[in-house]
Structures are given as C-alpha cells and as structure tokens.
Amino acid sequence: MRAVLTRVSEAAVTVAGETVGAIDCPETGGILALVGVSREDVVDWKPRAEKMARKIAELRILEGEVSVADAGAPVLVVSQFTLYGRTAKGRRPSWVDAAPGEEAEPVIAAIVAMLRERDITVATGRFGAVMRVSSVNEGPFTVVVET
Questions:
Q1: In terms of pTM, does the model score above 0.85?
Q2: S-S: 34 plus which of 30, 51, 80, 88, CB 3.0-4.6 Å?
Q3: Does residue 80 carry a catalytic annotation?
C-alpha cells in the first residue's frame, strides 16, 4: 500500500461539477491523502490497512511536528491507483501492479473507517470516478508512505 500525504490548509474533490468531499482547516492544517492499493495488498489486507490508517493519523507532519490525531485535524482520502504505475520502460505507464477496483475499494473504505474510529474527521473522493482534486499545500510538505 502506498500513500502520498500532503499538508494542506484546504482541499476538495469534485465529480462532474459536484463537490463530493472537502476539508477546510486553516487553523490546524490537515492532510490530503492519495492512497493506492497494489495487487499484493489485497491478500491479507487488514494489517496493511491498519498500519496505513495509523500512519495517516499519527505521523507528526503537521505544523509544529504534530499529528492529525494530536491536532484534531481533518483528512481528505482519495483513492489513487496511479501510484502503482510502472514508468521504467516506454512512454505509457503500466497499471499491472495496481489492484483491480473491486478489490481495492473495500481496502480504501476500511482505511477511512479506521480513521473515523479514531474520531478523525474524514472526507473522501468517489471511488472509480473521474475526480478533480484541488488543494492549498502548506509548506509545501509532502511525504510518501508505504506499508
């Protein structure tokens, strides 16, 4: 499992002109989490999903080296299969390492549920949709997390 976590003061996802998920957090900051699931991740996925949720919640990457959990900050989770694109050869990425949608969707949903169980405010994109993601990055501060 792979995620790109970006510190933001606001972020939103729209689908066909409709905002389906948004966070606005100029005081605390928040995290835009682009999360990808690989074919390997869907086998015995629960421990990996738990680790990813823990990383998103507990990494001290907000201003002042605090975590989302410590700051009470929100998270916008967006499924991102393209994080598993192979680009070493040719000019067209290969998506063979990305989990198929029907297998990845429950894993992303579980991560969202695990974050919410920690009383973290979580907004989401719409799985499988063509999404427009906008954000105001703070820092800028972006890290890649792999579990």
A1: yes
A2: 80
A3: yes
